[in-house]
């Protein structure tokens, strides 16, 4: 089973499970729950276990700065702990194919949708 984590929407957090080429979405309102708690709830609803995850995709380049950083950190940590591949992807891409082509041990970096605004100053991205 492959998992896509999309934390880019300000209203909800989306988990998409791909099992045997069939996708199932689980949406959770964006509240103060942690990503591990939400993943646990998602897997429980799907009657799956953490060890069933064979690879991860995480959406980067969209959404809030902190949400992107949290999603990438969570995905990389989970990939490391489970020794599974992780890729950066867009929900519209064929992310299961990207995961299956990715070797274990290569991790993703956050990409942001705009320039950082710290203390009212714009800091250009390189």
Automatic annotation (TrEMBL):
Q: Report the coiled-coil segments.
A: none
Q: Where is the Gcp-like domain?
A: 33-88
User: Which one Pfam family would you cite for this protein?
Assistant: TsaD
The protein's name is Gcp-like domain-containing protein
What organism is recorded for this protein? Candidatus Magasanikbacteria bacterium RIFOXYA2_FULL_44_8
Recite the lineage of the species: Bacteria, Candidatus Magasanikiibacteriota
């Amino acid at each position: 089973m492959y998992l896509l984590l999309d934390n880019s929407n300000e209203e909800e957090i989306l988990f998409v499970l791909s099992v045997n080429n069939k996708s199932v979405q689980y949406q959770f309102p964006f509240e103060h729950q942690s990503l591990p708690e939400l993943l646990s709830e998602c897997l429980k609803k799907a009657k799956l276990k953490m060890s069933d995850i064979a690879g991860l995709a995480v959406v980067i380049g969209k959404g809030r700065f902190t949400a992107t950083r949290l999603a990438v950190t969570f995905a990389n940590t989970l990939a490391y702990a489970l020794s599974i591949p992780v890729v950066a992807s867009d929900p519209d891409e064929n992310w299961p194919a990207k995961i299956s082509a990715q070797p274990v041990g290569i991790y993703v970096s956050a990409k942001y949708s705009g320039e950082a605004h710290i203390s009212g100053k714009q800091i250009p991205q390189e």
